[in-house]
Design a protein that fits this description.
Pfam families: LRR_5. This is Leucine rich repeat containing protein BspA family protein. By secondary structure, the protein is α/β, with parallel strands linked by helices. The chain contains 5 helices and 19 strands. Strands 7-9-11-13-15-17 form a 6-stranded parallel sheet, with no helix packed on it. Strands 10-12-14-16-18-19 form a 6-stranded mixed sheet, with no helix packed on it. Strand 18 and strand 19 form a beta hairpin.
Length: 288
């Protein structure tokens, strides 16, 4: 039977192969595809030589173990590197870093004293970011930041970050990570993106003045996401939203008030609220 794909279409499909053997087998399907690998100008999988893709102009490095191929014009690094390493790795080469994180060590190494001095090349924020600065009352996560690490804005009780009151998450973020704003006692105004998908455990634990709207886009809220929160929480999620818990259903399991000043916690439900609740112990489902 003649092949159903032309050479151009098959090259597009081949970009999504995972294994070396897949590409070797591809050229043996039909004579039409014999030189298909010569058409690639970059490597879709990790390679250490030009044997598989002899005419690549840009080498993509997917893991830290990948080996640089000499005399390639350009390199693209996909594994996560620190801001400091992005300045020191592969010097004198044309390199693009796709995932650059900043952590506490980077602030000292690169003498960053103002939050506006963080380079736009950084798209991952790490542990306790704001604790490196003083007198910050308001912060908006920039659009170029695509990932927040665990406890990124936590521990606002320390001397350096006691003033944060307003926090806006950009639409480039889809997950609020574990412990994101854990212990941010004076944080009162939080703006979540309309495309947010998940709020992880302890994300807003012990936020005593919290005022936040949870958008309909959210599909998962982990247990204790709002543990010991005080304030106004508007819950307007769709029927596909799953709330994880490990005990019989009670709204306190999610918002974590338990016996802690329950009368101060104000949770506002949308009129058409319908939530699927998943028990971590029994795996049974119920609805609210």
């Amino acid at each position: 039977m003649p092949p159903q794909l032309d050479v151009f279409s098959f090259q597009i499909v081949a970009k999504y192969f995972y294994l070396y053997e897949d590409y070797v087998n591809a050229v043996q399907i039909n004579k039409k595809f014999l030189n298909i690998l010569d058409r690639f100008r970059y490597n879709p999988i990790s390679v250490s030589t030009l044997k598989l893709f002899p005419y690549i102009e840009t080498q993509h490095l997917y893991t830290e173990k990948d080996t640089l191929i000499p005399f390639v014009k350009r390199y693209v690094v996909w594994f996560t590197v620190s801001l400091t390493d992005s300045y020191s790795l592969f010097t004198d080469l044309e390199v693009v870093y796709k995932h650059v994180k900043i952590d506490n060590e980077d602030f000292f190494t690169n003498s960053i004293s103002d939050i506006n001095e963080i380079p736009k090349s950084v798209n991952i924020y790490s542990l306790s970011l704001l604790n490196n600065f003083t007198e910050i009352t308001e912060f908006s996560v920039p659009l170029h930041v695509t990932k927040l690490k665990t406890s990124v804005f936590d521990n606002n009780t320390n001397l350096n970050c006691t003033e944060l009151e307003h926090l806006t998450f950009s639409k480039s973020l889809f997950i609020i990570p574990n412990g994101c704003c854990d212990g941010c006692h004076v944080l009162s105004d939080v703006v979540l993106p309309e495309n947010l998908l998940e709020i992880c455990s302890r994300a807003f634990r012990q936020n005593y003045n919290l005022d936040v709207d949870i958008p309909k886009s959210v599909t998962k809220i982990e247990q204790d996401a709002f543990y010991e929160c005080l304030g106004n929480i508007y819950l307007d999620v769709g029927p596909e939203c799953k709330i994880e818990k490990d005990s019989p259903w009670d709204i306190d399991v999610l918002f974590g008030t338990y016996d802690y000043n329950k009368e101060c916690n104000h949770v506002i439900f949308a009129e058409d609220l319908h939530i699927e609740v998943t028990s971590l112990l029994s795996k049974k489902k119920s609805t609210l």
